[in-house]
Design a protein that fits this description.
Blueprint lengths: L1 H45 L5 H10 L4 H4 L20 H9 L9 H25 L2 H7 L4 H24 L2 H22 L2
Length: about 200
């Protein structure tokens, strides 16, 4: 009897282990697919093409925004990241750059070294904002206050465009201000809507 219970327990643990590995693998596959879709959207946006079809395909494929938002994570966690080899978390780095308390002393030299990464952040954020404003996500996430959800996506898009413009102008102060605005749009939305 004890042996049968031990075998049943062991089988249950193995089943649970296999289920969790499969679930993690599927989750990772979703994040990778979402990352590729967002990068393709960014590329199409940069070429000035019609992106409505791509946004519709992304919206149809992904019920949740989590795999799409995962692009902001460092590479080692399956995101895109920024900095050397994508080791930095995009949201955290953006918050440090835009911090009014000066957590990251942005100098013209640092800005020159981060320029490509900051452009990538602006482009990704603009794409994610366009995806997030789709009716499906407004209904799924903005249940509490759809108007506020839409406002946050507009702020995110505006902050992304400000960041792109500021980085191209090489103005440290403008980059810090734009980074702060973009970071605030994310932080405020997360505090109101993240469960």
């Amino acid at each position: 009897m004890k042996r049968r219970a031990a075998i049943t327990f062991t089988a249950a643990l193995l089943g649970l282990g296999l289920w969790s590995i499969t679930a993690l693998s599927a989750d990772d596959d979703d994040k990778k697919a979402a990352q590729e879709a967002v990068l393709k959207l960014v590329d199409a946006m940069n070429k000035g093409g019609d992106v409505k079809g791509q946004i519709a395909a992304i919206t149809q494929k992904f019920d949740e925004l989590e795999p799409i938002m995962w692009v902001y994570k460092p590479k080692k966690k399956g995101g895109i990241g920024m900095g050397k080899d994508g080791v930095d978390d995009i949201e955290l780095t953006l918050g440090k750059i835009g911090s009014p308390t000066g957590k990251a002393k942005l100098t013209p030299q640092k800005l020159a070294g981060m320029k490509a990464d900051l452009i990538k952040v602006g482009e990704l954020s603009r794409a994610v904002a366009l995806i997030s404003e789709q009716d499906k996500y407004v209904q799924n996430y903005g249940k509490k206050n759809a108007a506020k959800w839409k406002d946050y996506t507009k702020e995110m898009k505006k902050g992304a465009e400000e960041l792109l413009k500021a980085v191209k102008s090489d103005s440290v102060n403008d980059v810090k201000k734009a980074a702060n605005n973009l970071s605030a749009s994310c932080t405020n939305c997360h505090s109101d809507f993240r469960e």
